[in-house]
Design goal:
about 300 residues, alpha+beta, Helix Hairpins, HSP40/DNAj peptide-binding domain, 4-stranded mixed sheet, about 25% helix
């Protein structure tokens, strides 16, 4: 997939105003429209100029694209936009003509999270918020800070800072959207759709409503089947290990995952951790174990 220089495609400067962009698009569209041009690449060029105009005519998409473009050049290969390239922006979801004709580049940038957000108007906007997984257990309130591009009286684009209160409902999943009625594009009667993402967690790995984690245990806990305390986002849980537990064995805590109907589960994968032998007493203890508990962990390998 190649980075597309939309300004070059339309033949306008990066500081072109709205009227210049519209004029350039109309000129290019007339030149390359398949009904007018018989050139072999007319249809492809017409799709390119239509896609470029779809981005540059919209202040929100244009501002985010400009921020991305600072690190890329036309024709450069890339797979995904760099992290945080669209931070602070909200994307309007205007009605797009011939949306099936847009390139993978456009789809990657501006249609992420578009599914399942319902019917929208041209004044609706889309942004993201990153929350800790604990907030999905209990619900939380956040302040969302946005830089919203607006077109001034002189036709130049400026940024307007907005702070919006967001209530994160209990049980929300990663990828779901929070609808803020009337908080879409300034000056229009649209809504703001906030896509929820989970921040990376040092312990838990969310998958839908389920949570996965690695649970370190001592060798004697594994051998004797002792009780261990397992932390969860909803509080500590007493977990009884089976006797002779082994590394890689998975324990399931039913209903302790993210809230919902039904709630998710927590899956703890056991990982036996051996203590460091740092004293003579510890070394003698392990030597005694070696003598009194004949054990070959490589027996299954044969030989």
């Amino acid at each position: 997939m190649e980075f597309k220089d939309y300004y070059n495609i339309l033949g306008v400067a990066r500081d072109a105003d709205e009227s210049q962009i519209k004029k350039a698009f109309r000129k290019a569209a007339r030149k390359f429209h398949p009904d007018v041009s018989s050139g072999p690449d007319a249809e492809a060029k017409f799709k390119d100029v239509s896609e470029a105009y779809e981005v540059l005519k919209d202040p929100e998409r244009r501002a985010a694209y400009d921020q991305l473009g600072a690190g890329f050049s036309a024709g450069q290969q890339y797979h995904e936009p760099p992290p945080g390239w669209d931070e602070g922006f909200s994307f309007s979801q205007s009605d797009m003509q011939d949306h099936h004709a847009f390139s993978d580049f456009f789809e990657t940038l501006f249609r992420r999270g578009g599914a399942g957000m319902g019917t929208r108007t041209g004044a609706d906007s889309h942004t993201r918020i990153e929350i800790p997984v604990e907030d999905a257990y209990h619900g939380a309130s956040h302040q969302l800070h946005l830089r919203v591009p607006i077109v001034g009286p002189d036709g130049q684009m400026r940024f307007q800072d907005r702070t919006i209160a967001v209530h994160v409902p209990k049980g929300i999943l990663e990828g779901q959207h929070i609808r803020l009625a009337g908080q879409g594009r300034p000056g229009a009667a649209g809504d703001l759709f906030v896509e929820v993402t989970f921040a990376a967690h040092p312990v838990y790995r969310p998958d839908g409503r389920d949570l996965y984690l690695d649970l370190p245990i001592a060798p004697w806990e594994a051998a004797l089947g002792q009780h261990v305390v397992l932390p969860t986002p909803d509080g500590k849980v007493d977990l009884r290990l089976p006797k002779n537990a082994r590394t890689g064995q998975r324990m399931r805590l039913r209903g302790k995952g993210l809230p919902g109907q039904p709630p998710g589960d927590i899956y703890a994968t056991l990982k036996i951790i051996n203590p460091k032998v740092e004293t003579d007493e510890a070394r003698q203890f392990f030597e005694r174990m070696a003598k009194e508990m004949p054990f070959d962990p490589r027996r299954s390998l044969g030989g």
